[in-house]
Amino acid sequence: MANQTTKVRGAGTTARRTLTAAARAAAKRSARSERGGPEAREELHSSRTLLIERPDGWEDPPEPSAGEEPEQLTPGPVRGRRLLTAALCVVLVAGLVAVAVLGWQYREGRRADQARSQALTAAKEAAPVVLSYDYRHLDQDFARARGRLTGGFRDQYLKTTKTVVGPTAAKYHGVVKATVAAASVVSAAPDKAVVLLFVNQTTQSTQVSGSRLDLNRVRMTLSRTSTGWKVSAVDAL
Predict the structure, then answer these.
(1) What average pLDDT values come out for the chain (237 residues) when binned by 10 residues?
(2) What is the pTM of this model?
(3) Where in the chain are the domains?
(4) Contacts for 215 with CB less than 8 Å, ≥ 6 apart
(5) Residue 8: per-residue pLDDT
(6) CATH code, residues 106-236
(7) What is the distance between the alpha carbons of residues 110 and 236, in angstroms, rounded to a whole number?
(8) What is the Cα–Cα distance from 130 to 180, expressed in whole angstroms?
(9) Which phi and psi (to 5°) does residue 235 adopt?
């Protein structure tokens, strides 16, 4: 009796046995399909897997990340209407801004014209009061003049008339009378204006025989206040 040899079957033997079993199963299904008719052949075809190779250059589209929705394509007409609406809004806003700017410029121009007229009138009325005085009623004259002044110039006028002009006029019986010969506006803004005046000043005193006439040019600056236009500076030219 021959000795039986025990063979150890490894991974390769197991693979061959698996393939052999698969082949026998396929052969049996093929035989049944030939004997069994259409139903068996349909079962055979349904068990087969059809593989399609990917064409050259084909790339699968990227999968959307978590939480990211696929991009929705806006139809052409809808996008066009949106662009038209946005353009109309821009044009409307630009038009409103232009109207506002023009309106502001118009109002400022009107205010400047009014300031020019009002400041010129105020300068003509203030010059004779500020530049005139009489030694017989100096306090009243200087008080009336201060009513036409504003700001730091008012304080400066008070100090000058009290320390220089008043004592000199009282000592020499000085009388000064000013009249405006001509006036013109140099510049004007809604709250400030500069006026050039040609002033004739007639002076009498014990230091002068008769009367002396002085032809002066005066630049007067006026500022708008809550009580009207006031003189804020006077410069002799």
Answers:
(1) 44 50 61 54 49 58 58 62 79 77 69 88 96 96 96 95 95 96 94 96 91 94 95 94
(2) 0.56
(3) 106-236
(4) 181, 198, 199, 200
(5) 42
(6) 3.10.450.230
(7) 30
(8) 12
(9) -125, 130
